[in-house]
Amino acid sequence: QVQLVESGGGLVQPGGSLRLSCAASRSIFPTYRMGWYRQGPGKQRELVATITSDGVTNYADSVKGRFTVSRDNAKNTVYLQMNSLKPEDTAVYYCSAYNAGIGNNWGQGTQVTVSS
């Protein structure tokens, strides 16, 4: 099992940027596909972005072109760069480490609030 700790959330104005980090307690290469999910007020948890061990990325349509997911396998860390933030991006953001034989490991989440 791997423990995940998110950081970097906070309050930002519309159009602003934040960079989230997810630090893993052990090596994530090549075992895990890493991802970011979010859950807004009154909404279901939804996929934001994923990145495979070799760097292949996938994004939700709602964030494509604004968010960038990356991973530093040597540091056991995954990042989510969020630009051009909108109020609808307000949510708790969760880091995930997925392996088909293990399932999902989840972090505790970090709050992102986009408001003027």
Describe the structure in brief.
The protein is mainly β and 116 residues long. It has strands at residues 4-7, 10-12, 18-24, 33-39, 46-51, 57-59, 67-72, 77-82, 91-99, 103-106, 110-114.
Low-confidence stretches: none
End-to-end CA span:
40 Å
- Overall form: globular
Radius of gyration: 13 Å
Mean of residue pLDDT values: 96
Q: Helices and strands: which structural class?
A: mainly beta
Polypeptide structure, described:
The protein is an all-beta fold and 116 residues long. It is built from no helices and 11 strands. It has strands spanning 4-7, 10-12, 18-24, 33-39, 46-51, 57-59, 67-72, 77-82, 91-99, 103-106, 110-114. Strands 2, 4, 5, 6, 9, 10 and 11 form a 7-stranded mixed sheet that branches. A hairpin with a 5-residue loop joins strand 5 (46-51) and strand 6. The protein is globular. It starts with a strand and ends with a strand. The mean pLDDT is 96.
